[in-house]
Amino acid sequence: MIQRNDMTEGKLPHPTRRLQVQGGMVEEYIIPEEKKAEVLAQLYIFDPVPGLEEERYDLHEGKRFRVGDFRVTWEHGENFLVSPYYPSSGGTVIDWMPVDFDDQD
Question: Which helix (H) or strand (E) holds 37?
Answer without folding.
Answer: helix 36-43
